Amino acid sequence: MTRGERLRPVSLGPPPRHQRRGRLFAAVCMAVTLLPVLVVAVLLGALVQSGAGLDEPTVVLHHLAEGGAQQLLRSVVGSLWLVSMCACVAVPLGVGAALQLEGPRRPVRSALALNIASLAGVPSVLFGLVGLELFVRALHLGHSMVTAALTLALVVLPIVAVAARSALRAVPDELREAGYALGATPWQVTRQVVLPAALPGILSGTILAIARAFGEAAPLLLVAGMTMSGSSTALGDPRGVLPLHVLALLVEPRTAASAEALVGVVVLLGTLLVLSGWAMHLRHRHERRRDGPWFEDPR
Amino acid sequence: MSATPTPVKLSMHELSAWYGDRKVLDRISFDVPATRITAIIGPSGCGKSTFIRCINRMHELMAEARVQGRVELDGHDVYGLEVAPEQLRRRVGMVFQKPNPFPTMSIRDNVLAGLRLTGTPASDGDDTVEQVLRAVALWDEVRDRLRSRADTLSAGQQQRLCIARALAVRPDVLLMDEPCAALDPIATARIEDLLGDLRTRYTIVLVTHNMQQAARVSDRTGFFLGGQLVEIDDTDIIFTGPGDPRTEDYITGKFG
Question: Which of A159, A251, B98, B214 has a Cα-to-Cα distance from A297 of 20 to 30 A?
Fold first, then answer.
């Protein structure tokens, strides 16, 4: 066969089998991608429906004006306060763990990494039990904000560690070598070369973990004293944080309370969306930077 | 060139290196003269990169890497117990195959990175920046944008920036591991010109797979094959009348 014969245009028959399979696979992937979108849509739909079904919206507005709004605001501040404390504990520990795991490969390290990754999938209520046993009963920290923050830190620590680890891995080895070749010690390379390069990835992982902590209710219920009655929105009381406040409103017999809970849910969702958006923004900036003309001529 | 004897800067004695059980360098012994360019040529996998990584002890950063034998810098064993590898690497700078400026730093900060990383106060920072950027012929191209990010430069400029970064630490020796492999011919020519300027002040060990480059810029050339040093001599001798038939075969393109 000569060269010219090989270059004939391909026939325009039905697509071959492997192509059809490829399309099927793409369709399945698309469906899987759309599934979370569907879940969010259903959630929002349910919210709108309950909002529209309110008997007396004016009563709700009245109650909000009477102090309900203030309570809500205080619960948001309480939540922010709580997740800040939680981040102060979880982020240094998580990044430290990731740095430790990213050292030279050893069997112990692989085992630890696997453990941490599995911890990220443990239901948070179990962390609540650990928090209750460890912080409340063994360490006598009481049903306090500190206990709640430490428990939440346990919940998000694996998430931070996994995200930080993948961010550290994404830093090219050439940069580490450049640092070593200039006479820097391993610690200097880590602190001044690797961490700055991995920072956007670490930050976006951290924000997602914080978002998780912000919406978490189950472990707090356990460490905050296992009560849903008498919602206290006093600052410094873990019972006052937003998810528990919403929960307390939901079980209150007052008619307007469930409507207020609805408002709380909207605030919660809004905050989570803002946090996720921020994380996406950081990630995007990071990726644009890495796609940039690093090794090629921009002109 | 062999007529003027120059002091020995680096001296290798029975240097062998391993990755795990695999021996990649086998009893290398030779001297590197001061303020000269010594080129190391040889086919891929002949151990030339491993060899220069043994000089500044970058080899030992790899897992399961091992070294035996001596490397002397000005007569002192760099593998001596009292030698900190970080101190050694400040005297023996290195330039890599791929330009690797720090992407999160500005051009200026990249030049000063070696000083900052190691905590050396750069009181005359601006002077140092201008001086080394002039030395690598980059000053006129970047003087107006010292604060822009280093990854906005072209690959050739990035590589010259990396050389400047290595020079800012004021080393005696410069190791270059195929510094032009990722560059186009024009950028390569500029680096080669630069090597000509730098040879008066620095001892340069240049690993290259490009024989013409070795012939153009180096004073001495060593030929590595299968982890062994086949021969080393003045560059014109290696390229006109090598002593070993294997060298001749490689240079004339019979293999490699």
Answer: B214
**Whether B113 contacts chain A with CB within 8 A:** yes
Q: Is residue B1 part of a domain?
A: no
Residues with Cβ within 8 Å of residue A99, at least 6 apart in sequence: A164, A168, A190
Give residue A44's pLDDT: 85
Q: Are the beta carbons of B117 and A175 separated by less than 8 Å?
A: no
What residue numbers bound the domain in which B98 lies?
8-104+172-251
What is the pLDDT confidence band of residue A105, given thresholds at 50, 70 and 90?
low
- CA-nearest residue to A106 within chain B is B63
Structure tokens at B199: 């040879």
How many domains, chain B? 1
Domain boundaries, chain A: 66-287
Q: Is A252 helix (H, G, I), strand (E, B) or coil?
A: coil
Q: Which of A243, A241, A211, A85 is nearest to A153 (CA)?
A: A85
ipTM of predicted assembly, 2 dp: 0.91
Residue B17 has φ and ψ, to the nearest 5°, of -140, 150
Q: Would you list which residues of chain A are within 8 Å, Cβ to Cβ, of chain B?
A: 104-105, 172, 174-175, 177-185, 188-189, 192-193, 196-197, 289-290, 292-299
Interchain pair A174, B87: CB under 8 A: no
Is B13 contained in some domain? yes
Domain covering A66-287: architecture: Orthogonal Bundle (1.10)
Q: Which of A107-121, B74-88, B176-190 has the lowest average pLDDT?
A: A107-121
Q: What is the mean pLDDT of residues B186-204?
A: 89
CA distance A96 to chain B (A): 20
Residues 152-181 of B with CB under 8 A from A: 152, 154-156, 158, 162, 165-166, 169
Give the CATH number, domain containing residue B234.
3.40.50.300
B223 exposure class (CB count in 10 Å sphere: 0-12, 13-18, 19+): buried
